[in-house]
Please model this.
Amino acid sequence: MSDQVHDFASNTDTVVIVGGGLAGLFCALKLAPRPVTVISAAPLGQGASTAWAQGGIAAAVAEGDSAEAHAADTIAVGAGLVDEAVALGLAREAGARIHDLLQYGVPFDRDLQGKIAVGREAAHSARRIVHVRGDMAGLAIMSALIEAVRATPSIRVIEGYVAETLLTEDDAVAGLQLRRVGDAGARPVTIASRAVVLATGGIGHLYAVTTNPAEASGLGLAIAARAGAVIADPEFVQFHPTAIMVGRDPAPLATEALRGEGATLINDRGERFMPARHPLAELAPRDIVARGVFSEIAAGHGAFLDATTALGARFAEKFPTVYASCIAAGIDPAKQPIPVAPAAHYHMGGIAVDARGRTSLKGLWAGGEVSSTGAHGANRLASNSLLEAVVYAARIAEDIAGHSIAAPARLPAASADARNSVMPPLAEANLRAMMTSHVGVIRDGERLAEAVRTFAAMERDSGNVALRNMATTALLVAAAAWARRESRGAHYRIDYPAERPELKHRTMTTLTAAREIAASLAERAAVRSPQPMIA
Ligand SMILES: Cc1cc2nc3c(=O)[nH]c(=O)nc-3n(C[C@H](O)[C@H](O)[C@H](O)COP(=O)(O)OP(=O)(O)OC[C@H]3O[C@@H](n4cnc5c(N)ncnc54)[C@H](O)[C@@H]3O)c2cc1C
Model:
């Protein structure tokens, strides 16, 4: 056990933030000079989706734009489930948070007059994406925040430990159980805290094909759900239509801007398949393009992004990051179509929080992608996620600052998870494969039911805590997807292909409810195929 963790165990009135991405680090900085401990599974700068964000942050800061227009665009994309007050609140606070980021040293691009430069992205009615050196926003934000955090004496950072259990006493948070990353046999470390902020990011790594880092495996959501927190909208997962399929995990992105430049989607016969699916063809909304690509692959025709005519020799200069990913895999995108597939990209669902970032558990806040504020509804508007992370991180800090947090009298009792078995070979790969095939871009009741039963058995029986937590989140996603018998936003059911007006409401669920769905599905399956009688 490292000394830093040992020390921390006795320091009981500290706020504990789990996650070293934008939400976690920004919250820690906003809380200064109050003592804060940040726990990050990976060293700061690694294992966080924030660092990979290419587009930027949506903020209505340009002349002629308004928070109302930004909120209207957010609501239009969210397929009826966006909480309108939340969307407006986000849009209104964007300018102040961009200002904060500038203060922390983020070098946002400026125009010739020295004003913040704004770019345009799909489904935004105005130019409002604040960016850094073109497509380097995430990296620049992380570098600036890490530097600010390292220079703030009130922030202690513990890297290489994963939070695996949230400890509660009398329905309030009492602490966390951590374990050193990559050492299943290590003894867990128990830390006490009455104020825990979960900022653990998304769930993309639960899928076999994803753009997210391996740390985005839904553990924060799982530990909150296992402690009884209410979970909102877990069925809504956004898939990016064009991840580059060159055998890399996570898969590199072929940015939407390539299609904006005229690149087309073709199958292995060289035929374009999007014009038959939508009048906007390759420029149709993200979920429609993702379904088009998925269907073509499922039909055995493959899917490729062809920029040979639209960009040709200009490819390397215009899209250096994508070009480098392709060349490293032996594909010259100036001359050859790029193999693509949809990839799990962003989780609209998460731990349900109110406007202050409070969850349903006393002493537990959640911010960033692990939370569900109601801002995204059934589909996320591009570049709203970094905005949500930064706005809610600030609100959480303000809420905690107004609290006096009593130090727990003693360390909370360790959970029953203290013993941990090694991850069974292939178990994680099997879970991820099932999420992609059964809970992915195109869903149906039968496969969802099979996934629910499988994940419920895994989360009940697994002796490996990490696998059990992954299965917990997978179960929540699959059970809510099974229960939503309609198609809406990013959730598409081939057996219920239409939106149903009576289902125009957010999902609020718990792990208990998901387990009940699993139990009833297991019962139904047993009735359909009874055990043979033994004479
Ligand atoms: C390729 C890519 C491009 C994107 N582009 C954009 C964009 O242009 N604009 C936009 O708005 N959004 C974009 N997004 C989405 C956006 O980046 C994320 O939603 C956002 O960065 C999430 O921030 P976060 O702080 O919540 O989580 P993250 O930045 O993912 O940080 C999570 C942190 O939690 C840690 N962690 C996880 N689990 C545990 C645990 N159990 N114990 C301890 N630590 C843990 C991780 O190591 C990490 O430090 C993109 C995402 C990807 C993957």
